[in-house]
């Protein structure tokens, strides 16, 4: 595969979470490098997290492994075990089907940059232990009882 010119990769800002859960991850930005390279078995995102932003809501996947490698800045990794600081050249792994919700928070003063690498599974669903949120590919975002969240208004 030829070199990927990251200046041509579209930036995604924010998250797809329904209100009120989208705000904390609203400032994150991602470049989908795996998609840009035509990868289908796993994804690679170059993610930038400004001060005060979260990577996501705390979550875990049923069928997808995740791996994070910090390139610059400082992040707080939050899991069931508590909090750990991750700095440049630190990494963390999150095996599929382990019910240990995780996310990253930038409590520093500079934008943190990291790689997210994850498998892609059509059977994956995602649980969010701290909030009334669940995701699966058929229903999208629902409450834990299965009632769907309202769809956001379309941007026209």
Please summarize what this structure is.
With 156 residues, the chain is mainly β. The chain is built from 1 helix and 13 strands, in the order ββαβββββββββββ. Strands 1-2-3-10-5-8 form a 6-stranded antiparallel sheet. Strands 4-11-12-13 form a 4-stranded antiparallel sheet, with no helix packed on it.
Which features would summarize this protein structure in a list?
mainly beta; six-stranded antiparallel β-sheet; Jelly Rolls; 156 residues
Write the layout of secondary structure elements.
Elements (H helix, E strand, L loop, with lengths): L10 E3 L15 E4 H4 L5 E8 L10 E2 L4 E7 L1 E6 L2 E6 L3 E4 L8 E3 L6 E8 L6 E3 L4 E4 L3 E3 L14
Antiparallel strand pairs: 1-2, 2-3, 3-10, 4-11, 5-8, 5-10, 6-7, 6-9, 11-12, 12-13
Number of helices: 1
Number of strands: 13
Residue share in β-strands: 35-45%
CATH architecture verdict: Sandwich
Q: What is the CATH class name? A: Mainly Beta
CATH superfamily: Jelly Rolls
Percent range for helical residues?
Answer: under 10%
- What profile does the largest beta sheet have? 6 strands, antiparallel
Low-confidence stretches: none
Please tell me what the overall shape is: globular
What fold name stands as the CATH topology? Jelly Rolls
Query: What are the secondary-structure elements, in order, as H or E?
Result: EEHEEEEEEEEEEE
**Mean pLDDT metric:** 95
What distance separates the N and C termini?
A: 37 Å
How are the strands ordered across the major sheet? 1-2-3-10-5-8
